[in-house]
Amino acid sequence: MTFTLNQNRTFLRKDFFCKESSVDRCPFSFLVSTREAVLVVLSSFAEMITLRVSNSVYACLAYLALMVYFLWPGRFASLYEFIEGDNIYDQLIRKTTKNISLLRNGVRCDYSEVIEENLSLYRPPFTEEIINNNVRLGGEYYPEECIPSFSTAIIIPYRQRERQLNQFLIYMHNYLRRQRIHYRIFVIEQYDPKPFNRAKLFNIGALIAMSLDYPCLVLHDVDLMPLNLGHLYACSRKPRHMCSSLDVFRYNLPYRGLFGGAVAIESNLFLSVNGMSNMFSGWGGEDDDLYARLQNKDIEICRFSPAYSQYSMLKHRKETPNKDRLAFLKNGKLRFHTDGLNSLVYKQVGMKLHNLFTHVLVET
Questions:
Q1: Could you say which DSSP state residue 157 is in?
Q2: Which of 223, 230, 291 is nearest to 261 (CA)?
Q3: What is the pLDDT of residue 181?
Q4: Which residues, at least 6 apart from 199, have a Cβ–Cβ distance to it below 8 Å?
């Protein structure tokens, strides 16, 4: 809006209607007195102030919303049922391998302090080097100062993620030894060019672990790191989804049927549902299929409190999605009894006991 003063008269021209420079030739031009022009200017200024105030209010609200989003990421985490910290130990199944059960001399390990303190451990130096390395050959450990109440096989499906595996082994051995449990880490590597078959590798690792008398299985991705020490790596009365508060999901649970990433399940229950499907090559679907197998047997799952279930995911390259996964899920119920542990076919290329893990090389 422009103004030209001439002999106490003001030409007020709306330039957005008229491109003409002459007021006389502009059909939208009009004459107003200087007083009227001032009133128009004041009115326009008032409107601008009101608009700016409104924008400031909206900006403040938007800023507040962002603050809530970033500083309180787990605000929706309580929308699912979970076991509170005070009840965690009572929900755990105290069962060990035979060699640990034969240990008679000594006191039982106490886990109350580990659970109550629930220390945040995901930081240097625990993420950088193994502290006071006393891990046995094959990635096995049990405390010598007390008798553990839990024996757990941690099964990692793996292919071409050396950097992540190194990070995982360093941190997890620092983490798990502080829990004073008996555990052993099995890395099941797919040694063929076929699409990655994560579920099949879990099945292979489960059979090997069960042959060594492990009563509890933790099916664990190599790129997940638990943040809180109070989440004991032991099996609960119900199969447990361990990583329900994951950083890439803003520490929220995307949907209640999510049952992957890190799962604790008793060996006998894994056997009862025939393990996992062997048909899900490529990314996606196998975890939902396992959840459906549990539902088919009327087996409920559980989760610990979000304060105990926080995990961080390492950056990694995404696998190619399985284009048939939805079809496999749809007709999965027809295959539960014929597709799984009882139909597992693979070739074991080799097995080696490394300092930090048991390495099983297979062709699928």
A1: E
A2: 223
A3: 98
A4: 276, 277, 278, 280, 286, 289, 290
